[in-house]
Design goal:
The structure holds two protein chains of two kinds. By secondary structure, chain A is mostly helical. Chain A is built from eleven helices and no strands. Chain A is 67% helix and 0% strand. The chains are: A mainly alpha, B alpha+beta. Chains A and B meet through helix 1, helix 2, helix 3, helix 6 and helix 7 of A and helix 2, helix 4, helix 5 and helix 6 of B.
């Protein structure tokens, strides 16, 4: 599946392609929208980007040779989102990989339960994470993707999915239990 | 954080991604490591917060429409090119052929696999997709089978068997009335990770059958069977192995 995104995009698609696309890919529009929404953090922008990604997927559709249509589509959505971020919010992509997180004691389940009970707070905490951490969490916890699917969507080796998730969860925990001021200073 | 497991295997364990040996090894480790026990509790609490908060955002209806329009525009339409009249006839004939082939392909499999199923694959998928629209999933939302089962009383001429399989990974979410093939049916809703499974139940006079092989349409799967005077059809976008597992639980 890797590289299929770069497959031929110049074919003229006909009514049969259109029907197959409708059956195989369009049912995953919600997944596409949800991923774009969390990567871009803005509903208005993510509608445009999700639409662009969907039409892009259609242009590349002859390069899709069966298999997991959701993962194939999400890979294209992710690439489209990153291209958009590079163009419109390059700073956001540069705040990554700044640190190996300082070891810290685990937060108590009780403290987390209280902090996590607030949807607004949870949303804000998730949005403060760098995109590469946010995406693995969204794919795993909201989309229910397996490690294998996450690896193919995000183009990270399958062996590092587990450690990416570990770091992402640790970031989310500390963003949740720190006050908003502290959380923004950390970034 | 001194324990290396906290940073790695714990997450594979939490996500069900360790192999049997790895999982057993981690469970042995858990018995003696307080740090991992606390960390696992914290991760589980975080996960249930994420899932309770319903952070998933579905695509707005307008977007779906715009995308469909964009797809149409990107599809070669015969009208865009000047085509001699005889080609039109050929195009019309092939559209008719495709339409009739897909019509039969659409209707047949369920008829074949269950001989007298009172509903078609299209109806099942439609009902499932409709139920996923906001606010349509359940009429009675409860994880308690003692709440869901009595709710159907007086609404249907039969009593669907309602069981929760939360321990097996299929939590009962609630129930709903639906209509399939012109008949009132009970829909039981289960969740598997973030995915929903609809189980449609209606009475039948036909003899029991085993669980039929899976059907697949539009990325959705279904399993159909009859048992003790009831007709069952479970449908979802989860993998067929998950769906079959639930079907077996219900079949018992």
């Amino acid at each position: 599946m890797s590289g299929s995104d770069q497959g031929k995009g110049s074919d003229v698609l006909d009514a049969l392609d259109r029907a197959r696309f409708e059956q195989l890919v369009l049912p995953h529009l919600d997944a596409a929208f949800n991923l774009a929404r969390w990567l871009l953090k803005s509903r208005a922008d993510c509608e445009d980007v999700a639409q662009e990604a969907m039409l892009r997927a259609y242009r590349f559709f002859r390069g899709f040779h069966g298999g997991d249509a959701r993962a194939w589509l999400l890979q294209i959505v992710r690439n489209t989102c990153y291209t958009w971020l590079e163009k419109n919010r390059p700073v956001e992509l540069m705040t990554e990989f700044d640190e190996e997180l300082h070891p810290q004691p685990s937060t108590s389940p009780e403290a987390l339960a209280i902090a996590g009970d607030n949807r607004e707070r949870l949303t804000r905490a998730l949005e403060t994470l760098p995109p590469r951490f946010r995406e693995v969490l969204v794919l795993r916890e909201l989309e229910g993707c397996s490690y294998k699917e996450i690896a193919s969507i995000t183009a990270i080796p399958i062996g590092t999915v587990m450690s990416s998730l570990a770091r992402a969860r640790q970031r989310l925990q500390s963003a949740l239990t720190h006050s908003p001021q502290e959380a923004s200073r950390e970034l | 954080m001194s324990c290396d497991f906290t940073r790695t295997a714990l997450h594979g364990y939490l996500d069900g991604e360790l192999d049997a040996t790895g999982a057993a090894e981690f469970e042995r480790h858990l018995e003696s490591c307080r740090e991992c026990t606390t960390a696992l509790g914290a991760e589980e609490s975080l996960r249930s917060s994420l899932q309770r908060s319903v952070l998933y955002e579905n695509a707005p209806v307008g977007l779906r429409k715009r995308i469909r329009a964009g797809l149409d525009a990107a599809t070669a339409s015969p009208a865009a090119v000047r085509i001699p009249a005889w080609r039109w006839i050929a195009v019309a004939a092939s559209i008719l052929l495709v339409a009739s082939v897909s019509w039969f392909a659409w209707l047949r499999p369920l008829r074949d696999s269950a001989s007298t199923t009172p509903f078609t694959a299209a109806e099942i998928i439609d009902a499932h997709v409709r139920s996923l629209q906001p606010g349509h999933l359940t009429d009675v939302a409860s994880t308690d089978n003692h709440t869901v089962k009595p709710w159907f009383n007086g609404k249907l001429a039969f009593v669907p068997p309602v069981k929760d399989f939360a321990d097996e990974g299929f939590s009962l979410v609630g129930g709903r009335l639906d209509v399939l093939g012109g008949q009132n049916v009970a829909a039981l809703v289960y969740s598997r990770r973030k995915h929903f499974i609809n189980v449609f139940v209606l009475p039948t006079r036909e003899p029991d059958t085993p669980i039929h092989p899976p059907g697949l349409r539009q990325g959705y799967q279904w399993r159909h069977w009859r048992r003790q005077g009831m007709e069952y059809c479970a449908v979802s976008d989860v993998s067929d192995s998950d769906l079959f597992e639930l079907a077996q639980l219900l079949y018992q």
